[in-house]
Amino acid sequence: MFRLNNNSMNPLKILTKKDWIVYLTVNLIVLIISLVFALIAIYEAKIAEEQRRLAIELAYEQQQALEQAILTEVARKQEIAAIQYKTGLDDEIARKIVEEAGRYESLNSNLIAAVMFVESSYNPIAVSHAGAIGIMQIMPVTGEWLAEFLERPFTIDLLYDPLYNIELACYYLDYLLDMYDNNLHSALTAYNRGPTGLERFIENNQRTSSTYSNKVIELYESFKNTSPN
């Protein structure tokens, strides 16, 4: 009887060395390709997760920014209303005061309003005996100098525009506060008399506080303690 050779039934036993090399190489390539695709999938998953995280963070930041903007706008409107309540000024001028107060760290709306009242009693066409003009009493020569720094046009007539006058005056106040290391009496006396006038005042009186600075600060403190609520 014919017997089938068991070796002929197992193809692996008849593979040559070369066949084994080819077989292993092919399987290795398949394994490498599988690993590459697996790594790509992992990388893409990480990228997707990172993008999702960034999207969540961005949405959160935008929400926070929106909420902050709303709060800032509410606070700004409240400040405008408070200035109008304290001074009786119209909406446009009150808005300008708050705008300029926000522009300079050294200033605030109560201080600006106090200087404005002492200077002109809120009269935009006031002219002093010395020639200072407008709601915050800017001398023409000083106004021209300030306008140059701010890169703004200048004519004497512009000083009668309360918004223009406030813009120049607030820049000058901030400049003086910086010059005198935020000493409010020095800055206010210099605003009233000029820097040279302040020097003469100190020489004659051995102090920086003047009748003018005391009057402004007294009103400033009163404004700070006055609330429409």
UniProtKB/TrEMBL annotation:
Location of the Transglycosylase SLT domain: 99-209
Transmembrane segments: 20-43
Any one cellular-component term (Gene Ontology): membrane
Organism: Desulfuribacillus alkaliarsenatis
Family: Belongs to the transglycosylase Slt family.
GO molecular function, one term: peptidoglycan lytic transglycosylase activity
UniProt-listed PROSITE patterns: TRANSGLYCOSYLASE (PS00922)
Record protein name field: Transglycosylase SLT domain-containing protein
Keyword entries, A-Z: Membrane, Transmembrane, Transmembrane helix
Presence of the UniProt keyword Membrane in the record: yes
Short name of one Pfam family: SLT
Database matches in InterPro entries: Lysozyme-like_dom_sf, Transglyc_AS, Transglycosylase_SLT_dom_1
BP terms from Gene Ontology: peptidoglycan metabolic process
